[in-house]
């Protein structure tokens, strides 16, 4: 009598289960750090000069100083745009802003990895700072990215639907946004004190290992209830110039080290 064979699949399955770390629970410390991340949301529009300078000169710095490890960053490219009764979108700085808002929305959708879509959007907004934004598509080559997913997206209905989604998110803000950039940390809008966003992040961070940069941030935040926007923002209204003559020659302070970096 021939003895029954053992099922062949048991050993390979066991090996696969042991090798697949993704099937095992994260260490408690790693899970705690992930849960401790602070939400950081930037509501902006692509051709707002204050938005582009904030993104290029300040926000990009969190990738350099390590604060990004404590942050869950979300970009919302819509700003002060308007959705008409027919579903069409009009933008504060004109049709080209609508185009770039949609391009950046498509980039977020095409490349969900924050490191990828932020570098692309940074590249575009750096060109806005330099008033060279009509060369925005050069960012594909600079970063070695395939333009096809973004190009197809903004040229068809998908890009429009993404912008309508961001319109709903922006319009649902409580309290409503009054200008851009509108920066929200841990659910709290920073109003005109948005340039001190790192202080608020460090204050809100509940993890056991705060980034080293937090040790040097000693400037106390302003009392937000007393903050009144005077400058450094683009109001929810028309007739705003893209930038002043002084702004045209202003260089970026933060460098993302793009491959063909002429920034």
TrEMBL record:
It comes from the Eukaryota. InterPro entries: Interferon-induced_GILT, Thioredoxin-like_sf. Gene3D superfamilies: Glutaredoxin. Pfam families: GILT. Keywords: Glycoprotein, Signal. The keyword Signal applies. Residues 1-30 form the signal peptide. Belongs to the GILT family. PANTHER family: GAMMA INTERFERON INDUCIBLE LYSOSOMAL THIOL REDUCTASE FAMILY PROTEIN, EXPRESSED, GAMMA-INTERFERON INDUCIBLE LYSOSOMAL THIOL REDUCTASE GILT. This is Gamma-interferon-inducible lysosomal thiol reductase.
